[in-house]
Amino acid sequence: MTQVAAERADPLTVAAALHTAAGALRQAGIPSARLEARLLLCHVLGIDMAMAIGHPERRLDAAGQVGFEALVLERSRRRPLAQILGEREFWSLRFHVTSDVLVPRPESETLVEAVLDRVRDRSRPVRIVDLGTGSGCLLLALLSELPAASGVGVDRSWPALRVAQDNANRLGLARRAQFVQGDWTAPFTGRFDVIVANPPYIPTDVLATLEPEVARYEPRQALDGGADGLAAYRALIPGSAAILGDHGMVAVEVGAGQAEAVAVLMRDHGLTGTATRADLAGVPRCVT
């Protein structure tokens, strides 16, 4: 794309830029190449999708052309789109995303749904803890739906905590959200009504086989679940049982094929009545 852009005497039109970019992304193995090219172009030019589609004859100035080319090159190297754009939508909320946190995924909304189904009185002052909070998406999505709730997100990573705090500020939820550095439940002595976690659950020897966007660019400590993918659950479930309040609930995300093993761990530590909930693809994704 660099050579094509350099050889053009006239500025590229939106249509021509998108055609070239989509071809480069398609060649790099990006399935939704045309859509992602449009999203990158909109990001560079500061326009919405309707403008990009409705005005294919619009010409890019030199800065726009160079900026677009740079982002297409990054995406061609399989850097996640959310990291390039700096944000990802989750639970209809916009979350700031960096390479220090996992990109929020649609399947994780299953946990939010499971918790909200159990909190029948949404005006109750529920106390929530999010273990391994990352971007803060689970905690902040729940706080957005529970106006009297408050919560704490804990993570080992200071850079991740800064991202989570930034998201709380952006979403107007900072007054009810606190973020602390620590290892799972270690920072806590009090009780919580709701405990949520999306821990690392990918078996170590599977990591190298993941899509490049994940294997190369997302934080390994948020992915690596040890030899069988269950190491984090063995660490966090006993502590969760110790800080769970009366009539409280624990909801954890699990990988494909892990639901029963995690349910057994939960029952072994006194968390009775465990149930699973499938994501939109039909994969058991949440154990409560």
Low-confidence stretches: 3-8
The overall pLDDT average reads: 93
User: How many individual helices?
Assistant: 12
Overall shape: it is elongated
Number of beta strands: 9
The biggest sheet, with number of strands, parallel, antiparallel or mixed sense and barrel status, is: 7 strands, mixed
Number of domains: 2
Question: What do you see in this structure?
Answer:
It contains 12 helices and 9 strands. It is an alpha/beta fold and 288 residues long. Strands 5-4-3-6-7-9-8 form a 7-stranded mixed β-sheet, sandwiched between helices. The protein has a two-stranded antiparallel sheet with strand order 1-2. The relative contact order is 0.11.
Per-chain topology:
Elements: H1 2-7, H2 14-27, H3 33-45, H4 49-54, H5 62-76, H6 81-85, E1 87-90, E2 93-96, H7 109-118, E3 127-131, H8 137-145, E4 150-155, H9 158-170, E5 177-181, E6 192-197, H10 212-217, H11 231-243, E7 244-253, H12 259-268, E8 276-278, E9 284-287
Parallel strand pairs: 3-4, 3-6, 4-5, 6-7
Antiparallel strand pairs: 1-2, 7-9, 8-9
Helix pairs in contact: 2-3, 2-5, 3-5, 7-8
Question: What descriptors fit this protein?
Answer:
288 residues, Rossmann fold, 2 domains, seven-stranded mixed β-sheet, two-stranded antiparallel ribbon, 12 helices, 42% helix, elongated, disordered N terminus
Characterize this entry briefly.
The protein folds into 2 domains: 14-77; 99-287, Rossmann fold (3-Layer(aba) Sandwich).
